[in-house]
Amino acid sequence: MWKFMKNKILIPLVIVAGLAAFFSFRYAVDEEVDSSRSKLIIQMISNALEQNHFAAKDINDSFSQKVYNRFLERMDYDKRFLTQEDIDALSKYEFRLDDEINNGTTEFYTDFIKIYNKGIDKSEEYCKEILEKSFNFSKKGTYTASNEDLAYPKNEKERKARWHDYLKYRTLAKYVDLKDNQEKRVADKDTSLKEIKSEKELEIEARESISKSMDYFFKRVRKLDSEDKLTLYINSITNTQDPHTDYLPPQDKERFDEMMSGSFFGIGARLQDKEGRITIVEVIAGSPCWKQGDLKAGDEIIKVAQGSEEPVDIQGYDINDAVKIIRGPKDTEVRLTVKKVSGAIQEIPIIRGKVLIEETFARSAIINSEVGSKIGYIYLPDFYADFNNSSGRRCAEDVAIEVMKLKRAKVDGIILDLRYNGGGSLNDVISMAGLFIDEGPIVQVRTSHSAPATLKDRQAGTLYDGPLAIMINHSSASASEIMAAAMQDYKRAIIVGTTSFGKGTVQKILSLDDYMRFVDKLAAKNNKEPLGSLKLTIQKFYRANGGSTQLRGVTPDIIFPDPYEHLDMGERKDKAALAWDEIPAADYKIASNPVPARKLAELSYERINNNETFKLIKDNALRIKEQDQNKTYSLNEDDYRERIKEGNDIADRLKELEEESVKLSIVNPKEDLPKVNLDSNTTSKNEKWLEALSKDIYLAETVNILNDMQKLDMNVDMNITNQ
Question: What's the domain range around 97?
Answer without folding.
Answer: 56-241
